[in-house]
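Homework-ish question, so no full write-ups if that breaks the rules, but can someone show me the predicted structure for this set?
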Amino acid sequence: MNTKEHSNFFQGKVFAILGLLILLIVPNFVDTNVQIVFILILFYALCASCWNIVCGFVGELSLGHAVFLGVGAYISSLLLMDCSLSPWIGMFIAAAITAVFGVIVGLPCFRLHGPYFALTTIALGELIRIFVENNETVFGINLRGAMGLVLKQSGNQFIAFEFANKITYYYVLVALVAVTILVTWLIKNSKLGFYLTAIKSDPDAAESLGIKLTKYKLIAMGISCFLISFAGTFYAQYFRYVGPSRIFSHDMSVQIALIALVGGQGTVFGPLMGACLLVPITEFLSEEFGGTLPGLHLFIYGIVMILVVLYMPRGIFHPVTKLFKSIEAKLFSFGKKSVQKGEK
Amino acid sequence: MQTRKHLRLLTLVIVVLMAATGCVPQTVAPAATEAPTQAAAATETTTTDSADVPVVKIGFVWPLTGNSATIGQQHSDGALMAIEEINANGGIKSMGGAKIEAVVYDSETSPDVGSSRVETLCTKDNVDIIVGCYNSAVTFPASEVAQRYSTPFISMGGVKNEITERGYEWVFRVNNKASYDVAEMLKGVDLCLQASPDTAAAVEADGGLTYALVYESTDWGSDNARIWKEEADKRGWTCVLDEPVTSGQSDMSAQAIKIKKANPDVINFSFYTNDAIVFTKALFANKINPRLGVWSVGGGSQDAAFYKACSPAEYEYSFVQEDWNVSMPYLYDWAAKISEDCYAKNGYYITSFFAQGWTAAKVAIAAIEAAGTNDKEAIRQALVNLDVKLEDCADSHIILTGYPEIKFDQDGQNTFSSGTIIQYQNGVQIGFSPLSAATPGYSPIIPIPDDFATRGSTSKPWGTAPEVK
Amino acid sequence: MLDSVLLALIYGILQGGAYGAIALGLSVIFGVTRVTNFAHGAMLMLSTFLYYELFTRFGIDPYIGILLVTPVLYLLGMATQKFLITPLLKKERGTTQDPASLLLITLGLGYAISNLFMMIYGSDYKTIPTAASRSYLTVEIGDFLFTTQWSRVIAFLAAFIIGFALWFIINKTELGKKIRAVSQNRDAAAICGVDVYKTYAVAFGLGIAAVAVAGACLSEYYFVQPQVGTLFGTKSFLIVVLGGLGSIPGAILGGLIFGIVESVGAQFITSSASSMLTFILFMIMLFIRPSGLLGKGGKV
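A: Not a homework solution, just the prediction itself:
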């Protein structure tokens, strides 16, 4: 009884806090090539978290989210290239436009469910990819077709979102991921979150209670697109090249969805956890065996997906937190006992 | 319930194990999969034997999965065989016989993966020089990473003009630019017209030369089409069809009908292997016979897999801009020997991709040899000063691609790089442009005869050497 | 002009038939088990590799190889349902159905299979040079020339043969009665003593067996390569939804429409624009009539 009253903020969260501290501090002290992996982890965590906001809470499977990533990347890069607008401002304009675009796209799509919704998003992604690849100019804007957008090096200027060292990029990502996770947490604990969960568990009942399904789904969609657009800007600034055949690709969309699903859809930290598990595995396998056994990392990817669905259908988040909590409890109680013994 | 769960896990594990064991004997066939491990093993043993001998590392990034994977594999085969040859002959002499270690990564045909791998090569593997990445769209951002890390980067395969036009002092390109490719083809068309004045007169009488462009709607395909159009405009030729095609088609009859209706004098296409096969078959089936032939800028139609999939009748009389001098094995004994070795090891005679991979690796090695040190700036200087002539390659075997010379201009572009325009005559590659690569005693067959019934019936298998007349 | 449109129409119909043949299995699986099998393309690819092995090792023509490969793929389909999907369905019984996990597991299976073959065979393009792929059907009337490989004609006909066989099994046999009962009402069928999960496995096996037959036809004119599945997999989905998920004639009709739109569309606009047209057509269809052309109405 006594211990329960003493339970404070840290109880049951020791490992979570430890993990976050690792993500915050460790990249400072590792080689550049490890920093690259950390950046990729957070990049995919960011994308997956955005995916999670709309798909995780609503329970639909979007396999076309790379479209919004790409739209964000394109808009901010075009603003930088054609209007010399700093990406720091451009990313907000891009985010706003992407959000509007997302809502417009979502309007018809959210009338569909299950496989129909998933297939429509696949079709949408392919459609946009082929469209961009084949059109040099759209409404007088020079999209440069299949050649993609090339961002010129402008020296390492903060204003141009270009840094000499990886660690600065990393902390920009940390900030973006923190914001996204905060937004996810806020949504989860707000009316919107309750509505979305209600829609997920029983859309008919939710509707009969007077919840406007489409309205709340679209709000979630808008927020998700707004945030994933930042990831797009980051992608463009970090790789300094946006190629339509990659950024709009089906593979990219699937990867984003998978990380969120493996991590745990509808949870706040799940996508981050999924990225921490999957990205290092794939990076390691593709680096080690990419030259000798191409395809191995995607094969393992597939196997991990099957295993996760079979044994942890709600994602790894809950089992892993449970495991860590039990370990913590054991460590903790062990300490307690010895203290009690000492008292005796 | 619990046991059943375990049973399921067990079956999965068995499947995985079966997969793993299934891979081992099978992957021996494309020898390159084994080569890096061999190379790595070789270097390991030598380093333990004599710890003071330095190791030179060369990084490679090729597309080993994705649409252009067969091509990347051949590039990789060539580069690894070149390194094996050097290691077997005493390594880098100016560095006390230093052995070369190859680090090979897969770009997955993706710009971001390619860039990340180059970054890994620069930071983790600490390679002395990087060679890659075939696809222009990957090479472009990847070479920028090398520039940022001040690591010499030899672009091999990527033809996009801008790769060497950004003022990057660390980026060099051995092979053709897109504009060179197109210029060679147009020169080839000119030669054809000269070779057959009757055809030239007939073309003139019909209101000038007409052409059709069919290409995959990617960076490479549309770039090639754009440059072709610009150059053809200067000559006053007319474009009768401009057809971008999404890659991954299972039937191209619709495109064939369209071409037939447009009735061009020349067809120029750029596809990777899969689409090139489908396209070539559709053209043949529909008996499309432009009088100045079907011209391919390479890509799929330089791939050995293409010629396994198509029958000789289907590619008879077609023109290909091969990115190397196809006569090399007939002109030089050392090239013929490499070709034999390649066949013994990989199951195919030298292709342009193999030759390019080989030459790029050899250029990298030559630069290190000249620098005599691991210092990157010294290697870069050596590349800037590099000047190799084909006739001096009898021992060094550097220019397997058959360029007359390798010397980089101030942009880092090898201005002497050139390919060969070849025509398939009786199933045999006959080179006729430029003159240095021409097969003696032959001239292009123009206009293309209308002999669909008998075409290919006497053709020799692909890879047969032409009889020198 | 008319000439070329007519020709394009014929080519489109032929190609569409082949699309339909591949999509049929997918449609049956969805109709019965409500599972969208994202591993469909990978299964198709797997079957073509089996035909390739049979041809190169024993010289067995894929058309004859059907007799050997189809049973294997049938068992593979049953195993997929039994070991991967049934456990999920059992787990989710009574709770809210979570479509994501069903999609996810087939997606993962597809990834695993296609990349397994990538590791084993590499990405080389292989072909099976049989008689049917090298002989041509030619119709020549004056200027009008229609010519195509016989193997493509056979692939077109195969759509109707597979379609009829599936229709016959489902509508005219004792087994089909069970399948229909299960697909109409799972719980009622269970009460009547039908082993629901076994029937599901049979239906899944049938769908995969159908794709194995289509794979034989495909391997006669197309190449064998680990990524072939992705190309046809995505298309099959769009086709099946267009025609109506679960409808056998719908799958063939959807395939024909796709083939025709691609081929005839390319005569008026560029080829890449006409491949966009199929996606647009698909999306419009979904928004107007989500149950597809021949699908039964109802909530989606």
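Now go work out the reasoning yourself. Hint: Chain A touches chain C at residues 59-61, 108, 111-116, 118-120, 122-124, 126-127, 130-131, 133-134, 200-202, 250, 254, 258, 261, 265, 293-296, 298-299, 301-306, 309-310, 313 (CB under 8 Å).
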